[in-house]
Amino acid sequence: MPDPGTLTEVANDRPGPALNAAMAETSEAVSARLSELLPEVDAPEGRVAAAMRYSALAGGKRLRPFLVVRSAALFNVSPHAALTVAAALEMIHTYSLIHDDLPAMDDDDLRRGRPTCHRQFDEATAILAGDGLLTRAFEVLADPVSHADPSVRCELVRELAEAAGAHGMVGGQMVDLMVERGIGSPEIDVAGITRMHQMKTGRLILFAGIAGPIMGKASSRMRASLHAYARDLGLAFQIADDVLDETGSAQDLGKTPGKDAAAGKSTFVTLLGLEEARSRAKLLSDQAVAHLDVFGPEADLLRAVARFVVERDR
Question: What family is it from (predicted)?
Answer without folding.
Answer: Belongs to the FPP/GGPP synthase family.
